[in-house]
Structures are given as structure tokens and as C-alpha cells.
């Protein structure tokens, strides 16, 4: 399996898990959870791909560092501006967003390890 397909499969798995989560959360917080999960997916999927594509290049640390800065900034802005502006409950929205970000960071890490392991050379 290629790097892109492995990462896309992981992103799809996290997206499906997020959709399943929406089915079980109470109706009162469903909009917050949906908004947080969608924002996390929309943010992390391209940033993770950018970092994976830069593995082994001189631009890796720059892409990884800028990606982390963007993630932290979006979470802070969402918590400080979007939550109050939309009247959402901060906990469910930020919890879903950060949960998706962490899950996709794990996908990114597993994808990178699998791509650069020597397992296939045996």
C-alpha cells in the first residue's frame, strides 16, 4: 500500500468514527461535536499530508512546526472566538476537535513509521 492510500485510509477511518460518534451523542450537543469534528478533519488532513510528503527532506521540520502552530492557533481561536460567537458549549466542540486532531496525528505517525520501516525489506 502506498503512502497516500495508507494515509487516506486512516483519515477515512477517523471520519467514519466521527460520524458514528455523532449518532451516539445527545441531540443537545450534536452541533458542537459535528462542528468540532469537521473542523479537525478539515484542518488535520491536509496538514498531515504536507508533513508526510516532506519526510526525509530539509523542509520537514519547517512543515511540521508550521503545521503544529496552525493547529494550536485554530484550537485557540475556536475556543476564544467561535464558541462564544456561535453560542456553543466549549467542552463538546473543543473535545471533538482535539480528539480528531489527536487521532489523525496518530494516523500520521503510524503512516510515517510504516513508510520508513525496514519491514518490507525482509
Could you walk me through the main structural features you see in this protein, from its secondary elements to its overall organization?
- With 122 residues, the chain is an all-alpha fold.
- It has one domain.
- Helices cover 82% and strands 0% of the residues.
- The longest helix has 27 residues.
- The model has no long low-confidence stretch (mean pLDDT 90).
Give the termini distance in whole angstroms: 16 Å
Strand content: under 5%
Low-confidence residue ranges: none
Count of spatially separate domains:
1
Give the H and E element order.
HHHH
Please report the number of helical segments. 4
Largest sheet: none
Radius of gyration: 16 Å
State the share of residues found in helices, binned by percent: over 70%
* Average pLDDT number: 90
- The tally of strands reads 0
Provide the structure class: mainly alpha
Inertia-based shape: flat
SSE inventory with pairings:
Elements: H1 3-24, H2 30-53, H3 60-86, H4 90-116
Helix pairs in contact: 1-2, 1-4, 2-3, 2-4, 3-4
Question: What is shown here, in short?
Answer:
By secondary structure, the protein is mostly helical. The chain has four helices and no strands.
What key attributes describe this structure?
flat
